[in-house]
């Protein structure tokens, strides 16, 4: 490095030091706000001396205190916490058709377990004493829910409407229904008679339709929004291998489409307080119910075939649908309507 370059750098350094001394070791920062109007104070000056800059401590945010594992965190301003509060059906009144046994009774128990008063409707004069007494014992007294039985064939739509109206009057309203009544007939398509078709549709489709309509009328009348659950089947989506049941499968497909249309009509809450009636389907796969066990007696090897066709390698128990009906009947599914909840162990997924 030559002498002229060294001299130039020394001169530059002296000039810089001089400027700091002239400004009394002050750093001037000017900021301009684009939001200030013309004529207002447009410039602010912040003066920080070098001494203050060196003495200013670095402020750090203190770490939060360690959380407690059992601490209840307030949500939306509430200081309390209730487990599974969205599933709570305390004070609600529901009807379950086909509620004397099988899937219908299991779903009725689930609603009562969540706190609902549930009326089980079926065509038998009285439910099986052993089955019914066991169901009553399984409903915990602490839940606040209860089970009640009423004889009713859904084909008798006139009396069905009267019964539903009387239940609503006695309880100042209804909050929903689970339409689970259904029958099955294994007959080749070319051997069906018109009266066989009419009977199956009268129960599986018309009975479901009239049940939902009767309940909805009372929900509108008493302005009690709630949930209607129609029990369809994966058989409404596929043709079951090894099971010759064209009318049953067709009726369940109709129920799935029915749910969409009823949801379209009834889901929106109206200014007069009516509406707000959600409508959804549950489409189970093969379940070990009395009706299905009868199919196994009629078709040897059917149980093993169905198990082989299932991703889980087994058939469902009725208890495995308890959570689904609690979900659809309660506020836990408050934004779900017109849907079809398929619970089939993966049978239709491959």
From TrEMBL:
SMART domains: PKS_KR. GO terms for molecular function: oxidoreductase activity, acting on NAD(P)H, oxygen as acceptor; oxidoreductase activity, acting on the CH-OH group of donors, NAD or NADP as acceptor. Gene3D superfamilies: NAD(P)-binding Rossmann-like Domain. The keyword Oxidoreductase applies. Keywords: NADP, Oxidoreductase. Residues 56-79 are annotated as: Disordered. Residues 92-237 form the Ketoreductase domain. InterPro entries: KR_dom (IPR057326), NAD(P)-bd_dom_sf (IPR036291), Sc_DH/Rdtase_CS (IPR020904), SDR_fam (IPR002347). It comes from the Eukaryota. Belongs to the short-chain dehydrogenases/reductases (SDR) family. This is Ketoreductase domain-containing protein.
